[in-house]
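Sharing a chain and its predicted structure for anyone who wants a worked example. Both blocks are below, sequence first, tokens second.
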Amino acid sequence: MRFLLGADFHLGAKMAWLGGQAAARREDLNRAFGRFVDFALRPDQKIDAVLLLGDIFDTHAPAPPLVELVARELARLEAAGLPVAAIPGTHDGYGYADSVWRSGRFPASLTLITSPRVSRTTLTVAGRPVHLYGLAYDAARTPPDPLMALKKDDTAGPGLHIGMVHGSLPASPEWEFRRRDLAIPTAELAQSGLDLLALGHYHNHLEKWFGDTLVTYPGTLEGLKYSESGERSFVTVEFADQGISLERTPYPGRRVIEETFDLDRAGMAATELEKHLDELAGLDRIVRLTLTGHAPAGFDATTLQTRRADRFFHLELDDRSLTVDERLASRLAGERTVRGLFVRRMQDRIAASDPAERPLAMAALRAGLAEFGAEEVADAD
């Protein structure tokens, strides 16, 4: 039996950080949901059921075209006879009176978990019973520590036991937990009796075992911010006689890349930075490059970003480098100070170094000039 897991599509997200490309990126998110359904319907994948783990929408009251898009795609799954179960998230929560999940716009075959506390729902999937345990967070009705009840119901009879939660595994996300983040009691998971705990809320893929329970976040298909970099994938969990296995199939979306570029290690040559940008370039790339080290006098990251922007879907150069005018070195070398002594010794070392070591020695000189206040001397001039 094979389950396809999906979470955190965030349809309708503003994506303001992408500036003029925000609208195009929102279309990427819409396309991702359609591709997810396409994958579920592929004969070679032999998917038996689909689990949607919250935050399909970025808000509890999305625009009508987005509601129509999701209803249409879910209808495709219904027409193919694929069971679909879903839980609301934190962005598209069920607790709002005007929540999209209360609209009645989705196929009747959709199994939507709406209880504010952990409840059990049983489906028949590929001729076998599947017991689902989940909840829809509601600030007014969800009790404290609701997930302590997340465990196999021994009266349920034979079948698979799967938890569905839009919540936070304490070892994974880097945020400070709020009550609605539903911190998962990991100490209890190994004794929960669940075969699988499928999670939404954390946007990068994660796979962990707690005893015999597989716990996984499928992650987003399209990164929503720079920290959501790396390969995105369709995540399928298969239950077989040999046990439980998880399979990732690469998703053909835009690639989010976040890197740090040390100008010192590159010998502070702007040409090396431009060469690296050319290596990263692609209209399917969303790139943020943080520049560190010491930049040459006259270096302008904004101009470089503008000049290279048309080679990317989106490019951001976050310039955190220090600028030191090396022409000051000759003047400072004549000082009868510790700073002057340092400059003279570094100049001697640079002159004696072989070509391979010279960039590192130059970087050391620039770093020393900055520490000794060479920039302040330049400003005074």
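Comments welcome. The chain is about 25% helix and 25% strand.
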